[in-house]
Amino acid sequence: NFKESDDAIHYRQSAFGLIAHNFGDMGAMLKGKKPFDAEVFAMRAQNVAALSQLPAEGFVAGSDKGETEALAKIWAEKTDFDAKMTAFQDNAAKLAIAAKSEDKDAIKAAFMNTGKSCKGCHDVYKKD
Ligand code: ASC
Q: What are the domain boundaries of the chain?
């Protein structure tokens, strides 16, 4: 559905940027860099769960060219990449549910799992 591969690249990068903003703020709250606000945290977790559905669409064939951090390996190992993306989406959905509870340990665990999904994929498929 993209006219140019640049549009696909812009689409996925925009989604990742929004995810990083929301996830980063949750991290700041859990690390005590700012006060924990349960309502804001839950809103951000909801945002990440919804946003996690978006980037996959931008990884279209042929969009591995140019100045992006996406390694060509993504398209060579698309099945594994897609599985990692799905794991991220599942973890983000669980985090959004945990964030509605008052169970701080469960929230922290769900946050860590989601962060592991981010890192697990970056380690393999993102240029350092
Ligand atoms: C972030 C961010 C990432 C992930 C990753 C988690 O806040 O921008 O890429 O968390 O560092 O390990």
A: 5-60+68-125
Residue keyed to tokens 């005590």: 32
> Fold for domain 5-60+68-125?
Four Helix Bundle (Hemerythrin (Met), subunit A) (1.20.120)
Distance CA 122, CA 117 (A): 9
Q: What is the ipTM of this complex?
A: 0.93
Per-residue pLDDT tens over the stretch 6-43: 999 999 999 999 999 999 999 999 999 999 999 999 99
Query: Is the CB of residue 60 below 6 angstroms from any atom belonging to ligand 1?
Result: no
Residue nearest to atom 11 of ligand 1 (CA): 119
In angstroms, what CA-CA distances link 38 with 42, 62, 91, 103, 104? 6, 42, 19, 11, 10
